[in-house]
Specification:
Layout lengths: L14 H13 L3 E6 L23 E7 L8 H11 L14 E7 L1 H7 L2
Length: about 120
């Protein structure tokens, strides 16, 4: 499994590590890449240094996950399952909640076809 990439700072622990642990437990992925994109969203809600947000950070993430658990699931159902698993990470951005999550969710066969 690929290691997570994180560029954020600690806030009650590292969110990328929590996301990785939660997703691993829920989906047993063969590939999992969690990337903190917060630094690329300067000025957006929840981004570090955004107007009125202070130094929040760790709010914008991208996830690439490949799992057998997605077999037979429509794209929307996959996304809903991931959002449900990570529900505790969302919430008030001013209080440290996650604001944005970009998902790429594939079965092993879909991932293999994309890698050709």
């Amino acid at each position: 499994m690929e290691k997570p990439a994180d560029e954020g700072t600690s806030m009650d622990g590292n969110r990328a590590d929590r996301l990785t642990a939660t997703l691993t437990g829920a989906f047993s992925p063969t590939v999992l890449r969690v990337t903190d994109d917060s630094a690329h969203h300067a000025g957006h809600v929840g981004a570090r240094g955004a107007p009125g947000q202070g130094d929040v950070g760790q709010t914008h993430y991208s996830v690439l996950m490949v799992s057998d658990a997605f077999r037979g699931m429509a794209r929307v159902a996959r996304s809903r399952a991931v959002h449900a698993a990570l529900a505790a990470e969302f919430g008030d951005v001013g209080a440290g909640g996650m604001h944005a999550l970009a998902l790429t969710l594939r079965t092993p066969e879909e991932h293999a076809a994309m890698s050709r």
